[in-house]
Amino acid sequence: MSKIESSTKSHHHVVCLVLSLIINLLFIYKWYAGSEGWHPDESNWTKKAATEAEAVAAVSCSGHGKAYLDGLILDHKQQPICECNSCYGGLDCSQLFSDCTVNADGGDPLFLEPFWVKHAASSALVVAGWHRMSYTYGDQSFTSQELERHIRKLHDIVGNAVTQGKYIVFGAGSTQLLSAAVHALSSYNASSLARVVASIPFYPVYKEQTDFFRSVDFRFQGDASLWKNNSETSTDHMIEFVTSPNNPDGQLNKAILQGQNVKAIYDHAYYWPHFTAIPAPADEDVMLFTLSKLTGHAGSRFGWAMLKDKAVYERMERYLKLNTMGGFSGNSIKSFEAPESSPSRPRRRRGYF
Known about the structure:
The chain is α/β, with parallel strands linked by helices and 353 residues long.
């Protein structure tokens, strides 16, 4: 009988010890986790964001528009309002406007939208509210080294640009990089005015942007072909914009002007397999690319320049630093994911293209 009582008391002690340990562990966890304690719904904070994103993406807008998380909502229903494509209207974009005219001058790359809808899972992103709040990255620079690595990898896989030995700078789309490149190249010889030219037909922003900034270092001087046999090109500082492939004729243009004082800026926005054949990797001194034509994410305003000359790289870096204090990190996030599942990335099964 005494043995049974002794065994029972021993078990009671073990149970009390285990309960004591559990209670103490809970107190310790509560101490370190914070006074508010642990809540299961807070451990999966991405769930609500994902649910909201999928709910908005499910709004069909009659197939003639899209609803967005950051778009307008109907106040009394908290339901997102459809943003309709051209020629359509109404709350669900079902109304066709018979008097609509086609905008042949527009350049929105919305034709790539079905590709991303089809690859919704592989291209979706969830971003924490505290993501990249600093001006700079961990190395105190304005450039993501990981993003740069992805860009080099993408070019190497696609085969449309030589990346070895090149410097890379990021900008708010290639539009900002156009002005940065003109500034950097015109600084080569500050004693003379740089003449900026381009072959007709050319992207209107080449002229508009050059004229807008009214710099004392450069002026837009029209069609490049008019300067081909001009004796002044051998002495004057010339900067030629070269669009390759060109828009709208698709020609793989080369610089018309040659000489020691001639510098070329190659705009390779459309130099991707879903726009043109790639006969060889581009290897010019100054090459510009943009995410808008690679993946269709024009609203992200992200572009990059690949440069051979370190001095040009440093001038462009300084221009961009003073102009915008680095790039918007939200653009970099999308750029990380988009090229990995990009329309130009070779696949065994191409899907959309």
